[in-house]
Every structure is written in C-alpha cells, then in structure tokens.
Amino acid sequence: MSFGDLKTEGAVKKLNAYLADKSYIEGYQPTAADVAVFDALSGAPKDSLNHALRWYKHIASYSKAERSGFPGDKSKNAAAPAANDDDDDVDLFGSDDENDAEAERIKQERLQAYQEKKAKKPALVAKSSIVLDVKPWDDETDMAEMERCVRSIATDGLLWGASKLVPVGYGIKKLQIGCVVEDDKVGTDFLEEEITKFEDLVQSVDVAAFQKI
C-alpha cells in the first residue's frame, strides 16, 4: 500500500483513512510493513487523525529491537543507512597507523563496550494478536455502548485495536474487535470473562483469530 510522502499532511490523511478499519498495514499482526510506514513518518499524527494516531502509538509501544524482529521483507524497512545502526556503530579494530600494543588495547576496549551494549538490550516480550467476536442479544442492542464497554476493560499488557460491525443475519450485527496482549499478563479467558460481565449487552464472546507475534 503506497501513501506517498508520509512527511506531508495529505499522505498522513491517506494513512488515517486506510487504518479506519484495520489494526495493521498488513494482516492481523505487526509486520515489517508497519515498521516501514512508522519510520517514514516524521512523528505522531495529529489528534484529529485518530486512526493513524492509534496505530502509531501501538507500534511505538514496541522497542526498536522488537520492531526489527517483525516478520516480513526487511529490505523494505531500510529507513536509514546501515552506518546508523546501533550494532554497527562500534569499530572493533584500531587504526592501522597505531602500534600493535595500542591497537590491541583499543580493540579490546571497544569489543567490551560493544558486548556490554548488546547485553543491555531488553528481552523480547511475548505478545499475541487476538480478534474477538462479541455478539449481542438482539437487533435492539446498543452496539456503540457495547463497544464502549468492551474498550473500558483496561489492564497492564492489553491494547485495544480497530473494530467493525459485521452482519450475522436478521438485522443483528456482531462487534469484531482486535487487540494485542502480552501473553504473560492477559489471556483469552480473562477477556471473555470480563466482556461477558456486561450481561445486558453481551450474549457471547468468541475468538475469531489468534496469532503469536
């Protein structure tokens, strides 16, 4: 998907419109395509571009190391020359003009600094992308209120994404809503239990899609 120069307002508006009913640039999980678009932006979109801003905050919640591990074609995510990469900015070898002892000392110091920097990188947090089908009792259910109630569920490790209403028949529509969870903190059982507490609005909850990130 091409949006043009994402440092211009017109291109960011196109991105906002594209994300109106999508959680990610491609599919139901973050990929290298999200990183490519994220890196192409000059910063967070305006508050009025709420879909693009919601997506931007979600991608920004991942560390640079986590984003580099997203699946997809990494060649499309080369937002800066390799010389700017944190892992490549350490010269492990001294200048050829220095004497052997001095060159060896500099090499060892830089090697140690490089290893310390690598050791400090945060470990990847296991996450999953989940799409839920939330079904109402009948066609008179206030779906806007249902979505508001679902999104009111807040806990550490849970981030709500895009949603849409999907017809199921007889004038009834279900709420299909996506979220990203940290596996160690939030599971599908928790989500189903919390959502079904809104018993006046919610008949049932099903997991429509589940994918490890």
UniProtKB/TrEMBL annotation:
InterPro entries from the UniProt entry: eEF-1beta-like_sf, EF-1_beta_acid_region_euk, EF1B_bsu/dsu, EF1B_bsu/dsu_GNE, Glutathione-S-Trfase_C_sf, Transl_elong_EF1B/ribsomal_bS6, Transl_elong_EF1B_B/D_CS
Region (Disordered): 66-96
Biased composition (Acidic residues): 84-96
Keywords: Elongation factor, Protein biosynthesis
PROSITE patterns: EF1BD_1, EF1BD_2
SMART domains reported in the protein's UniProt record: EF-1_beta_acid, EF1_GNE
Every Elongation factor 1 beta central acidic region eukaryote domain range: 92-118
Gene Ontology cellular component list: cytosol; eukaryotic translation elongation factor 1 complex
The Translation elongation factor EF1B beta/delta subunit guanine nucleotide exchange domain, residue ranges: 127-213
One example GO MF annotation: translation elongation factor activity
The keyword Signal is annotated on this UniProt entry: no
Superkingdom, natural source: Eukaryota
Family of this protein: Belongs to the EF-1-beta/EF-1-delta family.
Protein name according to UniProt: Elongation factor 1-beta
Organism: Macrostomum lignano
